[in-house]
Every structure is written in structure tokens, then in C-alpha cells.
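Lab meeting, action items carried over

1. Structure of the two-component assembly. Owner: GW. Status: complete.
Input record:
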Amino acid sequence: MLLWDVTNYRTVAHYAYSMLHHLHNPDSFSWGCVIRFLSQKGLFTEAVSLYVEMSRMRLYPTSHAISSALKSCARIQNVLGGVSIHGQVHVFGFDTCVYVQTALLDLYSKMGDMRTARHVFDEMAERSVVSWNSLLSGYLKAGNLDEAQDFFGQIPNKDVISWNSMVSGYAKAGNMDQACTLFQLMPERNLTSWNAMITGFIDCGSIVSARELFDSMSRRNCVSWITMIAGYSKGGDVDSARKLFDQMDHKDLLSYNAMIACCAQNSKPKEALELFNDMLKPNIYIHPDKMTFASVISACSQLGDLEHWSWIESRMNDFGIVLDDHLATALIDLYAKCGSIGMAYELFHSLRKRDLVAYSAMIYGCGINGKASDAIKLFEQMLAECIIPNLVTYTGLLTAYNHAGLVEKGYQCFNSMKNYGLVPSIDHYGIMVDLLGRAGYLDEAYKLITNMPMQPNAGVWGALLLACRLHNNVDLGEIAVQHCIKLESDTTGYCSLLSSIYATVGKWDDSKKMRTGVEAKEIIRVPGCSWTTNLTSP
DNA sequence: CATCCCCATC
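Predicted assembly:
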């Protein structure tokens, strides 16, 4: 009973564990209670390992223990554990227990093995609506909408969860018309039904419809708020996300994680760190988890100095957060962006499994640190491991070619993106313009800009302007600066650049005109490329 | 008293 009051999950597991071992001879009923308790608290790994320990003692598991253990295996995708418990289900004679059989079919349904799930379902002597719902969610997850619809029609006593599954299935498939129809038809709706509709609208890009639905709700829970915040985050609308977040009455861990991630993903690293600071204040105090730190590390890497990180690192130690591959990958990015390429490499080699994100972070790190040949080597290694590159990988690779001044290779690389079905983003164009321009191919760079499939931004024009300054090209410089001024409110840097071009080619009057009221020093940044350049007027 | 639906990761 004391257990339910403990909010720190690690402590909960510890308590449960020690209580069990304080009993002289815990019977299988006690074991079952603790396993069920852990599973309900979301401590699935702990629940499974406790079940394994109980099995080793040759205790006869209760139906509670076995169904909770199966649920835990399903949640953490523990195939091996799930299948071995399946074997025990027969051994201990739970073939007719509806709870155990349902947990079993749900396990296979969650693993995506619909044949076995269906087999378990067909063999069941007794089925509850939960059994039907488990199989239904499996069909929906597999994208089998027709089969799901058909199966849904056969459910004898549909409850709100059956309806919710169908609504969310159609919403996830992008079929909002059908989702709306079902939502209208539902005999009763709970918060999950409304939240599924919000998710659907956001996924198909209708944030306005999502907000209308959200505003029309008479009651909302954390999931409703978090879904909206994440939706605004995806659309880059940090202000709207923050407004909602500030209106929340009871902010939990996930709300903070969503808002911190929103800031970290939308280039607001300072705000992300401020929020992290807020959640640790004694009057709020919310215990951060690995996901909090994943975003916080990303925020640190955007700030580009290791000072913030050393503070974060000690907080991580305070909370007993252990580095996993995800966090280590975020750290690789941090170290690389701060110039500690050796530390980045060390972490990279310590990873259990190097995935697309890890490779991309490392390639980018080599790129911005002038290690072009390392970046290329990593890229080839990645391809050899059959990992398909994405847009981020190419940002790193093109950055590497850019730093090395390898124009031809860089151009080939840019053109090879389509071989992987990738369409270059505006950042990739920005790097290419910079690469061509620095090498003196100003006309080619200008041609690339005019042929871009999207509207060029200030970064792209800025890169051309910078190249014009390097090679003192007045005509293109004037064009570039006009576009920059149109696109950016702070234009002092652009103007001083053009002014210095005029000065170099002897157009002193024009130079003077540009320079009036202009600060001598400015920083121009090319997006997708991490270098910054200090420029001084003559 | 268990089992199913909605939210967050570089």
C-alpha cells in the first residue's frame, strides 16, 4: 500500500523487489502481485526479469503473473521472452484462461505476427471484447483496413475501445473522412476518441482543424494538450505550442518533454534549457528521464559550447541516467559541433549498434571539422552496412566536400541524391551555392539558384553574396543583396558586404552609400553548414 | 483485481 504512494519509478522497483525478498518464503501469489504491480507502473523490463526469477524457483505462476509478464514482453518487444512464456502457458495449463490467452494473442498482434495471433484467437474457448479488440488493433497496425473493418463488424459487443481503434486506424491511414464518419456514429466517446481525431488532423497537416476540435472539447487530458503541442512543433509554430503549454494546469513529465523537444527541434536551444531548469525547481519538481536529456543535449549542441554540457552531465549523474545508444548519438553530435571530434569518435565506436542517425551525426561532425576523407570513409562504411542515407546524411557529406573545396566531387554527390530517392532541401542548395561560389563558379551558383524548385531563402542568397565578395563580382553581388534585403529584417551584414565589393573594385561612391549607418563587423551564416565567418569592411 | 484504444526521442 505504501508502494502506490511512491512516485519515483526506480524506487518503486526497488521497494517491490525488497518487499518480496523480505518475505521468508514468498508464495506464487505474492510474486504474481508484484509482477502485476510492476507491469501496471510501466516497469516492463523489471516485471519480465522478476517473472524469469520466479520461474527459476520452479514456482507455479498465477494467471495474474503470466498475463502481466506477457503484456510486459509485448510492450518492450521481447520476442524471445514472449515465446518462452507461450510455452509455459501450455505446461501450466492456462489454455482456457481468457486473460492469459488474450494477453498471448495481443503479444503476437503487437509483434506483427497476425497469423499466430489469429490462431490463438480461433482456438480460444472463451473470448472477451478485449480479445476481439487486441486482434483488431493488430490488423489496423498492419494497415489492413479492409480486413479490420470486416472484423470490426463481427465484434459482438463493441465497446468504446473497439470504436476508438477503428477511428484511429482510419485517421493514421490519412482517411479523415471515414474517421469523422465513425466518430459521429460512435454510441459513446471518451477522451481517447477525441485525442485520436486530433492526432489524425495533425498527421494530415490540418493543424487548424485539430485546434478547432481541441477547443470544442469540454474536458481535456494531458494527451490532448501534448498532441497539440507536438502538432505545432512539427509545423514550426513554437509560439502557439508555448501558449498552450503555459495554459496547462497540471504539467507532467511528458508535457515538459514535448515542449522541450519543440524548442530543441525549432532552433530555440536557450528556451529548451530554461524549461529544463524550470522543471527541476522545487515548487514544480518533475523527475526528468532519458527523453528529456535527449532534447537537452540537442539544445546544448546547438549552442555549440561544452560549458552547458558539463552542467547537464552532472545533472544526468544526479538522476542516475545511464547513456544508451540514443543519448550517446545525441552526444556525438554535441562533441562534433563543439570541435571535439576525438571524443565524438570515441563515443561512436562505443555504440552497440551504429544506425543511420549515428552515422549521419558522425559524418556531419567530420564535415564541419574539415575531415572530408573521414566523412567519405564513414559514408562508404555506412553503405556497406546496407544503411540507406537520408537528407541529413547528405548535409554532412556535402559540408565535408565544401570544406575540402572539392567542387566536382561535391557536385557529383549532390546529383547522386536522387539515386536514393532524395530531393535536396533548401539547405543542400545553400551548401552547393557556397561550394560553387567559393571556388569562383559564380555563374554556375547563380544558375543553380534560379533553377531551384523552391523559393531561395536568405541563406542561399547570402552564400552567393559572400562568394561575390571573395571574387569581387559587382553584378551578381547587387542581385544577391537585393534578395537578401527582401528576405531578412536585419540587413546590415549584407549591406556591408556589398559595400566592400564596391570598395575593392573602386566604386567609392556606391560603397559609401551602402555603408552609412552600418556596423563594420557582421556574421553571416550559411544554414546546413556550421561555419561562421567574420568579415571586416575595408 | 489482469488483457485492448490516444501523447514524447537524434
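2. GW to write a short summary for the group page. Key points so far: The radius of gyration of chain A is 29 Å. Residues 445-536 of chain A form one domain.
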